[in-house]
């Protein structure tokens, strides 16, 4: 059973996160680092996944060996920035089912605006992991989890890179059953809803749109 909040303090994760936070880190480096961090966070977010066994032959003998059923996992990226985490997770579990929820945050109201949703069928039978690097006000992640629950998901986890205390509290109030895994819990939000110290706008930094 995962705690409501897990901060992955592993030195490799923290080192790469520091490089990502730096304002002079290039778009290409930022994207590469996010992929690398997603592989490391993937180790934590998949902890305790159901396994089955398969009969195999080693060069020495036969054995019943543990194996994952990737189809039992649904990875859902909150666009755009979620794709940076999704890419690495898919390398770890290539058979996972994949969904996308398109959300952008209105800069005035800080409310999420949905522009797309396509998620795998039969979510009630899968562990559903929603991914987005930034948990700021929590409005986007709450909206994404609302949608996934409305589509049947019962066993959910949320993976991010940075979380704010405000966002974690909003998620806990709305979805106390959804564990959050993050690389860091930052200090606070600024007046524009940006995480402080943060890393700026994750989508813009990944895609070079500003
Ligand atoms: O917790 P919140 O206050 O809702 O903020 C977090 C959201 O903001 C960012 O997306 P953004 O709206 O910038 O869209 P983008 O990924 O397309 O850049 C981020 O990727 C989250 O989805
Ligand atoms: O700090 C923040 C807050 C929301 N979205 C981002 O990309 N960064
Ligand atoms: Mg953005």
From TrEMBL:
A cellular-component GO term for this protein: cytoplasm
Alphabetical UniProt keywords: Allosteric enzyme, Glycosyltransferase, GTP-binding, Magnesium, Nucleotide-binding, Transferase
Organism superkingdom: Bacteria
Listed pathway(s): Pyrimidine metabolism; UMP biosynthesis via salvage pathway; UMP from uracil: step 1/1
Pfam families from the UniProt entry: UPRTase (PF14681)
Purpose of the protein: Catalyzes the conversion of uracil and 5-phospho-alpha-D-ribose 1-diphosphate (PRPP) to UMP and diphosphate.
Listed name of the protein: Uracil phosphoribosyltransferase
Organism, as annotated: Falsirhodobacter algicola
Gene name, Swiss-Prot/TrEMBL: upp
């Amino acid at each position: 059973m995962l705690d409501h909040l897990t901060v992955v303090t592993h030195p490799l994760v923290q080192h790469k996160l520091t490089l990502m936070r730096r304002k002079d880190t290039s778009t290409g480096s930022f994207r590469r680092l996010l992929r690398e961090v997603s592989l490391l966070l993937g180790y934590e977010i998949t902890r305790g996944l159901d396994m089955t066994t398969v009969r195999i032959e080693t060069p020495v003998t036969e054995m019943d060996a543990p194996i994952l059923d990737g189809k039992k996992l649904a990875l859902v990226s909150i666009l755009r920035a979620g794709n940076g985490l999704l890419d690495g997770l898919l390398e770890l579990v290539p058979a996972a089912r994949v969904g996308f929820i398109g959300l952008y945050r209105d800069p005035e109201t800080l409310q999420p605006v949905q522009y797309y949703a396509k998620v795998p069928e039969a979510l009630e039978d899968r562990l559903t992991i929603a991914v987005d690097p930034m948990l700021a006000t929590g409005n986007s992640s709450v909206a994404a989890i609302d949608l996934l629950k409305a589509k049947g998901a019962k066993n959910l986890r949320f993976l991010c890179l940075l979380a704010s205390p405000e966002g974690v509290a909003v998620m806990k109030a709305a979805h106390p059953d959804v564990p959050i895994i993050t690389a860091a819990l930052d200090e606070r939000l600024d007046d524009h809803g940006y995480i402080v110290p943060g890393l700026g706008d994750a989508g813009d930094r990944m895609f070079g749109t500003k």
